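Technical note accompanying the year-one report. For the benefit of new consortium partners, we illustrate the data format agreed upon in the data management plan: each record pairs a sequence with a structure-token string. No post-processing was applied to the example shown here.
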Amino acid sequence: MDGDLSTSTSISRRTMLQGTFGALALAGAPSLLAACSSASGGGGTGSIDSDVSVGSNYSDAAVKTAFAATVKGYSRGSKVKINTTDHNTFQNNIQNYLQGTPNDVFCWFSGNRMQFFADQGLLTPIDDVWTKIGGQFTDAIKKASKGADGKYYLVPWVNYPWVMFYKKSVFAKNGYTVPKTWDELVALTKQMQKDGFSNPIAIGQKDGWPAMGTFDIINMRLNGYQFHVDLMAHKHSWTDPKVKAVFDKWAELVPYYTPGATGRIWQDAVKLFDGNKTSAMIFQGTDQVGPQVAKANLSDVAFFPFPEITPENPTDSAIDAPIDGFLMSKKVKNKAGAVALLEYLGTGAAEQAFLKPNPSDIGTANNYDQSTYTPLQKSSVEIIKSTKNIAQFLDRDTRPDFAYPIAQNAMNDFLNNPKSSASICSKLEAQAKQIFTN
């Protein structure tokens, strides 16, 4: 299916961890986030009439304003204090933050990102919140909000799909059709080069995570969703021939990438795509591409699911569609106030207030008024709903200390030398054995 991106969007960025949790924990440096926290102890009961604090990574101006407007609509009695920290600073200091004096509630992610801290005892279970909000979410969303112990830890907020973007005018002018299979995708990129697009697929890997999305989707298209899940849990070896096959298949696309990917930020890659001169496509999340495309070009942008590679794993079999949300810290000072706030944040009304000025993501609550969705959001809903299995992205589906810098470095090494798949797989397996046995 195609997705039409034809509406104005405000700035938003996908927030991804970019450091090694273990190294941060051992560094001994004072947490930049802890300094702004109001919490001073653990397990306080508090009151819904008392202040409740939120640690937020919504630091981009438009998203920060949207979240502030959302919180302003909360009317249970507590005064909510939002402590906003720059995206990367928040992510890079999260372990020290949670071990120090964290806020009552904080922004974070589902999947292993959440479970990692739950397993360390750094989060407060919120089953009491889910007794109020549970009816508003699908079983898949509920599952993504639980820890390995079966308890709820996350209030889901928004999510978005990873898809291949293109310009409708470029396809129309050159007579291109949306590729349905891998062979059609490769043939299309070859034709684009002949037509003057020197690097048909834009990519920026300096931030460490964008290429992970391509590894994920090729793995799921070749080997299936369950293999992806098991590999992320190290139930399969990284030297399994199926993993090498992913890198070898991916290598067929690398000649059509913009060169120097590891030295380019993802925003600049979107600009290369938007410029219509060297790159005609980009594989990225709607959360990133939509806000970075010039407003005048938005109505010309559309997307399609990553093409089929094997008939056993068609385009509707799996997709990366990460879920962002809110968690309660273990050292919550005002638990009653935090519970009340999370009950509010777990409503379609709260999600709608946030996304109204920032329509790059979609809400997760069933009672979200979808008639307000933009064409981009409607297309995102359609592709997620029509896909059988939803993955959370490599760096959320595996342990964070394996994702960064181990998997990150492997992706960079591959892009710099696509013929090195065998050595990359061997190195990944050796490091995975060390990480997953600890």
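Partners are asked to follow this layout when depositing records. Residues 5-42 have pLDDT under 50 and may be disordered.
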